[in-house]
Model the fold of this input.
Amino acid sequence: MGETILKMQGIQKYFSGVHALRGVNFDLRAGEVHALMGENGAGKSTLIKVLCGIHQKDGGTIEYLGEQTSFSNIGDSQNAGISVIHQELNMMNDLTVAQNMFIGREFFKGGLIDDKAMEEEAQRQFDKMGVKIDPSTRLGDLTVGKQQMVEITKAISRDCKLLVLDEPTAALTLPEVEELFKIMNELRDKGIGMIYISHRMDEITRISDRVTVMRDGEYVGTVNTKQTTKDEIIKMMVGRVIMGEQKEASAVDADAPVILEVKHLNAGKEVKDVSFQLRKGEILGFAGLMGAGRTEVARALYGADRRQTGEIFINGEKVNIRTPEQAVKHGICYLSEDRKRFGLMLDKSITENTTIASVDSFIKRGLINDNKMRDSSAEFNLKLRTKTPSMEQLLKNLSGGNQQKVIIARWLMKNCDVFIFDEPTRGIDVGAKSEIYNLMDELVAQGKSIIMISSELPEVLRMSDRVLVMCEGRKTGELDIAEATQQNIMQLATMREEN
Done:
């Protein structure tokens, strides 16, 4: 590691009376990967937004490349050599991949934008990363994982001196993660400093040189990665050690009633003849690599995507679910993996976001009982320890993890029988993960049933009673938790069809 290229000291930031950053210190050296960790609401993303000019600091100093500075907007920080990949993608879905990559720095020929030249350059960048994406493709037609890879490639294509990665691997497959780490090591060798934000402890201990921990907007401490342990880092984050072992045996009786049965489900090209059962009080884990079709099964079951063929049974009775409203009527709730796109009303309050699915229950004689809505919202968000100064806080002012909690509170209030959790802890810190795990355990103890889609195998093994594995749209195996291991799950997840 080389000289210090960034030094932030005593950084202060307020939002509508909320003291978001309380005298935070952070530094970064050339050729270093410095992990920034903390629970949701700790202030990590806010600190980065202050650095790159999205937010203006209310106190403290920023020294970059040896000079005192304060960027007025993100364009200034980009021109200074700082590239940021935010957790929530903010791209233009109607433009092509190449147009998104070079927006603001377009190629011109004869006074006109040269799309061909941009596509050729984008292809060269993708080839460097080993990413298979057609630069002429409309961005909105790509999966979340592919969109994330476009954003990563876009950032790396800039001549940056400081690269910030905020949960960059959340939607990536294992090969894509390996390729990202390979590129990060190459950038480190070139002297580029990187700030790495992730809740995946294995990634932090593998890729980072140092770790700085924040808690409730304050600086907790900085440690050398190789000289500390995962438990010590977690304890710094939450003030307690959270343990999580694989579930040794299913907690569900073999003769427990089947609450949901799906037979020969087909939907588009992604879901091919999928059948399964879900028992009362059971957590059925869906495992598989990116593109396996897990989310597509959930969306077809929920009525969000068109189901071509197949049968759905609730408590033994055949039902015809064609819309999400019909699914909710039959007691099925869905927590989307893409909360920003399908789950959130960012400009509405926590109360409105929590009660939107249950608003009819607060209407009497044609009038909405606002006090009852607010009290009920507070009750369910309190259970999840949602961090907010009030229930009237706009959702866009919460951290990503706390936004996730609000959506979970919405479906808890609806009191459904079947909960579909699609990547429920993506972008969630270890403390909030433990809370969500406890919540899921409470739900099944009450007789609710859960389908949990997760790309984190330790999470699948910790929570599931059974594990259903998919590959390329097909169910390739089903394991009782007592026989499930990471190895045999991965074997089933890579059982591709023979051409």
